[in-house]
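ok so for the tutorial part 2 we go from a plain amino acid sequence to predicted structure tokens. step 1 is just haveing the sequence, like this:
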Amino acid sequence: MSDLPPDLPRLQVLATYLRLELARVEAGIRQAEQQAVAASARRDPPAPPDWLIEHGIGAGRAPVRVHVGDCWDTRTRCAPADRDTARRALADGVEACTHCRPDTVLGVLD
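step 2 — the prediction. this is what the tokens look like for a chain of 110 residues:
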């Protein structure tokens, strides 16, 4: 036994209704996808590294300054470093940033 109506006019009305419902569901899916994209864009940025080593300009790009990871005076030529690398750079004579004082934080003083 079929649950569908037997005559053409009622079947056409049912088909129209189902098309409209499908369009409504698809619009809901699009909206949910847009909200998911927006939510992923709102996520917090990654935490800054603990230490940064600023490199000079040129072919050799030697280290020129050591910074604490969240220092405001960093530039685009900085690379993340671990604690031992930052301490080694300071011990090798690389300048410590005068603003964030990584030498004091690391316990490496002149």
